[in-house]
Structure formats: C-alpha cells, structure tokens
Amino acid sequence: MNGDLGWALGVLLRTYRRAAEEVLNGIPGGPRGYQVLASAVQELAGNQGVMATQLGIDRTVLTYLLDDLEAAGLVQRRPDPLDRRSRRVVATERGRAVWRERSAELCRVENHILSGLGGDGAVFRDLLQRAAAHADRLDPSVSACQVVEEIDAQDAAELRRHRVRS
Asked: With 90 as the cut, is the pLDDT of residue 115 above it?
C-alpha cells in the first residue's frame, strides 16, 4: 500500500476513531456531544441556531443532544440577552472539567497515533490541516460528523462484501 493516500488516511481515521470513541465514552452523543460541549466551553456560537450551523448538526437533532447534555449536567441553555427568543448554550463547571479532561486525553491519543513520525508530528498536523482546508473549499462537507458517517457506511458495506465472498 506504499504511496496509497486513501489507505493511509483510512488507517489513521480508523485508529483515531476507535481511540476517540473510547475517550468520549460517557459523554451523551459521543463525538458529536463532545463537539457541542467544546463549542459551549469555548463560547464559539452566539446561540443554539448558530451552533447547529457551525457544527453541521440538524437543529432538531441538536435539541435532543442538548437535552441529554443538560441532563448530564454538562451544559445549560439560557435566554440570549440580545434576543430572548433565542437560547445560548453555556457550559457548566462540570462540563468545563469534563471537556478539559477529555480534550487532554484526545491530545494524548493524537500524540500516540503520530508518535511514529517523531519530531515531524507537528509538521504533519499543519500540512494535514492545510490539505483539509483546501479540500473543504473544493468540496465543502455539511459537517465532520457526516464525513465520518459516510466512511462508516462504506466500511460496513465493504465488510458485508468481504463476508459474502468468504
């Protein structure tokens, strides 16, 4: 598979996804819930509607996800002071602590996965970010979650084809 970009990206994504799912276990919504929590902690969205757009999550799905995150004590919805009809998603102290812990664990996962690159890990991250940003401009995706779901569906289809041949 030397030189096969698709194979290399697939292996890295599969390895990262498995480790990330383990790290994010217990957060309602898993990786998607973590994205919402991270957005709330970092105050990236002015309100719930903006958050849905930024994360590429359907508003209805986001509402259910926020219900679960709120029930877990990780976020709160508060009226937007600029528009009382709108809701802001605010991380609780517990949510901030969970985010700090899980983001540190994800960083360790990333470092472990890239440890085979030695000192070139940071360069690889930068190049990968640039390549991803360029690819997204050429063919914008609705969300990172959608990309992973499409890859999961393709992996499942390939596994079914392999089982039929065996």
From this structure: yes
